[in-house]
Amino acid sequence: MSSHIEPAGHPLLAEVNPVAIPRQELVHHGRDFHWITEKVCGIVEAKTPVWWWWCFGVAAFVASFTVAGLIYLVGTGVGVWGHANPVNWAWDIVNFVFWIGIGHAGTLISAILCLLRQKWRTSINRASEAMTIFAVVCAGIFPVFHVGRVWMAWYLFPIPNANYIWQNFRSPLEWDVFAVSTYGTVSVLFWYVGLLPDLGTMRDRFTAAGNLLKARLYGFFAMGWRGSNRHWANYEMAYLILAGVATPLVLSVHTIVSFDFAVSLIPGWHTTIFPPYFVAGAIFSGFGMVMTLMLPLRAIYRLEDLITQYHIDCMCKITLATGTMVGYAYAMEFFIAWYGANPYEGFAFINRAFGHYAWAYWIMITCNVITPQFFWSRRVRENTTLVWILSIFVNVGMWFERFVIIVTSLARDFLPSSWGYYSPSIVEIFTFFGTFGVFSVLFLLFIRFVPIMPMSEVKAVIPQADPHGTGH
Amino acid sequence: MSKIFPKSANALPLQIVLFIVVLAGVATAAVTYYATPKYLRIGYEPVQPVPFDHSLHAGQLGLDCRYCHASVEKSATSSLPAAQTCMNCHSVIKPASPLLAPVRHSYETGEPVPWVKVHVAPDYVYFNHSVHVTRGVSCVECHGKVNEMTTVYHAKPHSMGFCLDCHRQPEKFLRAPRDVYNLDSPTLAAQGKMDEALAQIHQWKVKPPQSCSGCHR
Fold first, then answer.
1. Which tens digit of pLDDT belongs to each residue from A239-272?
2. Contacting residues of A for B162, CB less than 8 Å apart
3. How far is B44 from chain A (nearest CA, A)?
4. Highest CATH level, class, for A43-461
5. Of A41, A142, B21, B42, which has the maximum CB count within 10 A?
């Protein structure tokens, strides 16, 4: 395409002179194909660093808390969680929504940004997709173990059985089952398809280095990738289709999760704003988590040339945008509670802000509404440490958002005689704390054994990839 | 590129898919056959402290079930007979039989004979004998031909599906009230008297629960 635009139609157009804004450089220091391959493969090929073992040990230790919590739960019964009338849903679903929400950034980056041709996605999409999958794993733990006798969890799916147990398809919880399992499946497929060329590269490099065991291992998973023209054509098509399939999922999964609440009649849950508000919150928390993970990774592996300041800017801006949407939703909920003139709804919100759980509410407001506003400032965005700290606040805030929504509404429902106060049992705390270990273990294994960036895609965004040199 | 896989590896994807399909098929078939109440429960026949023989007492001697299971048509649970009931006859018939020692012990001390339970409804299921028996549901529908058993065994699956199969179309399973304790009698439907069965349902407003709270209270 030529860079000169032919004027057409209205004569005024001839006078329009669009400013030529230079495209942001996505890879610094003119790094070439070879450098990128060496950099990304080098991480996997190098000897396991000492810090990795330390982190892995700590993560595994933390993960053991989940294992212990779950063993105790299965051995004793679901009563070991602190749920009791009226709060029969608490940390289990809070944690579920928290983790599922985190997953959303991965899918957004890989699917929506792919379709929108946002090229800056390339250097962070692989790790974010991995994050998505691991977050779904952590999320899944809670509803599955919440059924109490886990070996009956398959009753969630419509499988014919001797007890004629059939699912209630009018229940949003059942929609959740399908939404989340579809989401998990598509995320894994998407991630895996994207990995194929890189697995092929790894196989070839290990073959060349004479490490036959690893060559075979990567070769097995590369499924015979040879990088022929036909392979690439099929690959691009498959990737595009998967991006198309995954795009509605970004919006649908958390919409359906929000239906768990919105479809019920509990004051504070029964609101139409929930779906968009949950989706915005999910993307907000997801980007928070992407930054929490990518910034240390960037520092440790010296990836500044690949994950540039521009990438961080983009992520901060998305966080700012979605965080502000979430803030708007909080305000709108209050407005509607007043405008709707329903005394129960009004009470639910007053109670959130000034009732027994006000401390949680104000943590939520501080972390979710105030934190992202710092990202207006370029100085803040350029201070990586500060960005990292703020991203942690985002994660904390989003956990509290789910806590506030779920627990405050249930603890104070229609009948004052049934009001109560919920605090988690030690088993719940253990189980939740441990999921961070589970997540970290998986993520550490990922950075150790899988190329953390799609090399081919990163290469495609550097100038050398453009044979015409016109900058398009 | 040097070869790291033999040529036969080309067939691997197909082989893996076939393997998974076959494995899934076998697993499904095995679970369906071996892991359902039909297989797990039917035939359960514990050894009882006294080799009490229903085929003799209820079959040959023709004792009515209610002679021993006295509360079956009046209450939710069907009672087991006290030693007194056995001693009505066994104080004269075979009074010294070693097989009856536990019954005599129970009779003297008042401690019940430790019969082993055969049918157990889970504690989350509400079950009521009288409501079934008095509406023409015979023992045989849920316990099989007890009058022909030397030792009672689990003859029906007692899964939720089993209960619901009848609750959804009770007319196919009902008997005339006088036939409830006659385990050899055919159902009204089998006698071609569907209209009588329907009339019975209409007259007594028989409406077995199908909603969860009917059985899971």
1. 999 999 999 988 999 999 999 999 999 999 999 9
2. 162
3. 18
4. mainly alpha
5. A142
